Amino acid sequence: MLIAALLAATSLPPIKNCPGKQGWIEASLPCPAMIFFDSGSEEVRRDWEPAIDDAARVAARPGHWVIVTGYSDATGSAEGNRRISLRRARAVADALVTKGVPGSAILLRAGEPGDLLVPTPAGVREIQNRRVEIFIRPGPGIDQGTVGTPYARSPAR
Average pLDDT for residues 131-141, to the nearest whole number? Predict the structure, then answer.
C-alpha cells in the first residue's frame, strides 16, 4: 500500500523486465531492475537496454544513488565467479553513466557465490542467476555503512 502511494506520488511507471523479487524495496521503484547475461559473458545485450533506460531515468534524478550488484550462476570457481560478477556490475554501471547517471552516485558489488535467484546444483547453468540487480535509493548520498566499490569507468577494450 505504501509502495503504491509512493509510486503514485512520484508518477513513475514500474521498471520493465523486473521479476517480482521480494526484498529491499525502494521508494522510487517497485523492485530492483535486473539485467541477465549469457554464460561467461559480461556484455549487456541490446534486449536489456530498455530496462537500463528505465533505471537510468530514475537514478539520474538529483538526490538518488545506485547500488549495482553482479551475480553468477553455479558454474566455475568461486574466485572466477566473483570476478565476472563484478565485471557484469561494472558493465551495467558503464551503461547507466552513458545515460546520465553520475558515476559518483554508483556503488559496485559482487554478490555472494551462493546467492542464486533460481536454486541449482553446482555446475548447472541458469540465466536468471547470471544477473545484475540495480537498486536505486533516494537520499543525500551513498550511506557510509554500505559495502561496495565506488564506480570508476571501465578501461577501454
Answer: 84
